[in-house]
Write a structure and sequence with these properties.
133 residues, mainly beta, two-stranded antiparallel sheet, 0% helix, DUF2147 domain-containing protein, signal
């Protein structure tokens, strides 16, 4: 089976943090993966019920992703609102205890059901449930 790479190219007017992209400027989403975690490596994904739930807080300006024994924080490098779906992207979020430890994240939230997909590049992708504050 041959795999092709697809790229999503967005006009610059759709990218960037700002009031038009992710609801109210004061709106913050809190997401957690309380039931299980899905980790992917070498093209194989597995679910693990034995895990420490993540705590994610995201808004148009900031992203905070806490997992295991660390928290990575930084600016939301881009947000995108497509109807009831809102996505937040953070590049080079820094670990609060070790600023040399950085991660790239993407969080896509279905605002109607309160469910999300959380991806940490090179580590895992997992579902989560979210509430807006």
């Amino acid at each position: 089976m041959r795999c092709s790479k697809f790229y999503l190219i967005l006009p610059l007017s759709l990218m960037g943090a700002g009031p038009a992209f992710a609801g109210d400027a004061d709106e913050t989403w809190n997401c957690r993966n309380t039931e299980f975690e899905i980790s992917c490596s070498d093209g194989v994904c597995t679910a693990s019920p034995d895990h420490t739930p993540m705590d994610i807080r995201v808004n148009q300006k900031d992203i905070s992703w806490c997992a295991y024994s660390g928290c990575w924080t930084g600016l939301a490098s881009a947000t995108l609102n497509a109807g009831p779906v809102v996505s937040f992207f953070g590049t080079a979020l820094e670990n609060e205890a070790d600023p040399t430890s950085k991660v790239d994240v993407a969080i896509t939230i279905d605002t109607q059901s309160g469910t999300a997909n959380v991806m940490v590049v090179g580590m895992f992708a997992t579902p989560a449930t979210c509430q807006v504050h």
